[in-house]
């Protein structure tokens, strides 16, 4: 079976998943998107409002920053990488769905088999985890993201570079934040592993 077909089958399976309580509040399952042969696989935390409305990952403000990092920094179209989250449905603090939160343990436990299968199918050269929750899951660590960022780890033989979540950068100065430089340093490490020339 081709990678495309495998991913389509998995997407279909995720589309009516009822394995955790987020199924009762979501509008759309946000499976993930990108090149099935991507060298770099970005992993975020969970969908926000715009992602839940459209079914696409990282299309809100944080997504715009991530897209700039990919297209202006790495220098490839966003469609050439793969982007997904550890949970596929939007975690919010209440049923009114006004405020986002990090996914809880049960949600992560119920959902991450989808992410594991996506990684298994795509077999990227490098994984970049964005923020604490995805880093904790992928690297099985309890270490905080500000300490662990930039330190290469491994997931089932695939190199992993943890970096800061774009939302965190935006909350701490955005485009003018020195944190952007930290993220860029981490991304360059990922590019080197993936064999992408650094400008
Ligand atoms: N933040 C995430 O972690 N993932 C998204 O898809 C959007 C915002």
Describe this structure in words.
The protein has helices at residues 3-15, 49-54, 61-74, 105-122, 132-139, 145-148, 166-171, 179-194, and strands at residues 33-34, 40-44, 82-85, 126-130, 153-155, 158-163. By secondary structure, it is an alpha/beta fold. The chain has one domain (3-194): Uracil-DNA glycosylase-like domain (Uracil-DNA Glycosylase, subunit E, 3-Layer(aba) Sandwich), CATH 3.40.470.10. It is globular, with a radius of gyration of 16 Å. The termini are far apart. The mean pLDDT is 96. Uracil binds next to helix 3.
Task: Quickly list its features.
single chain, 199 residues, alpha/beta, Uracil-DNA Glycosylase, subunit E, 6-stranded mixed beta sheet, 8 helices, globular, binds uracil
Q: How is this structure best summarized?
A:
The protein has 199 residues and is an alpha/beta fold.
What does the secondary structure layout of this molecule look like, with pairings?
Layout: H1 3-15, E1 33-34, E2 40-44, H2 49-54, H3 61-74, E3 82-85, H4 105-122, E4 126-130, H5 132-139, H6 145-148, E5 153-155, E6 158-163, H7 166-171, H8 179-194
Parallel strand pairs: 2-3, 2-4, 4-6
Antiparallel strand pairs: 1-3, 5-6
Give the averaged pLDDT, no decimals: 96
Distance between the termini: 37 Å
How many domain modules? 1
Shape: globular
* Classification by helices and strands: alpha/beta
Name of the CATH first level: Alpha Beta
CATH fold-level assignment: Uracil-DNA Glycosylase, subunit E
Please give the order of strands in the largest beta sheet: 1-3-2-4-6-5
Question: Into which percentage range does the β-strand content fall?
Answer: 5-15%
- Tell me the Rg in angstroms: 16 Å
* Contiguous uncertain segments of 5+ residues: none
How many β-strands, per DSSP?
A: 6
Largest sheet: 6 strands, mixed
Q: Name the CATH architecture.
A: 3-Layer(aba) Sandwich
Give the distinct bound molecules.
Answer: uracil
Summarize the amount of helix as a percent range: 40-55%
Q: Which series of helices and strands comes N to C?
A: HEEHHEHEHHEEHH
Helix run count? 8
Fourth-tier CATH superfamily name = Uracil-DNA glycosylase-like domain
């Amino acid at each position: 079976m081709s990678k495309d077909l495998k991913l389509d089958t998995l997407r279909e399976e995720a589309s009516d998943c009822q394995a955790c309580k987020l199924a009762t509040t979501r509008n759309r399952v946000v499976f993930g998107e990108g090149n099935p042969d991507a060298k770099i696989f970005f992993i975020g935390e969970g969908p926000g409002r715009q992602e839940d409305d459209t079914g696409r990952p990282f299309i809100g403000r944080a997504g715009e920053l991530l897209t700039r990092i990919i297209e202006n920094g790495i220098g490839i179209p966003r469609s050439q990488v793969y982007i997904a989250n550890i949970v596929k449905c939007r975690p919010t603090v209440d049923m009114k769905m006004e405020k986002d939160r990090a996914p809880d343990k049960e949600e992560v436990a119920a959902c991450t088999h989808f992410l594991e299968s996506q990684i298994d199918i795509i077999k990227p050269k490098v994984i970049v985890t964005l923020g604490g929750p995805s880093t904790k899951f992928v690297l099985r660590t309890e270490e905080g993201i500000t300490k662990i960022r930039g330190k290469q780890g491994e997931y089932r033989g695939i190199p992993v570079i943890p970096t800061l979540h774009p939302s965190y950068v935006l909350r701490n100065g955005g485009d003018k934040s020195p944190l952007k430089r930290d993220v860029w340093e981490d991304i360059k490490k990922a590019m080197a592993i993936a064999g992408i020339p650094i400008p």
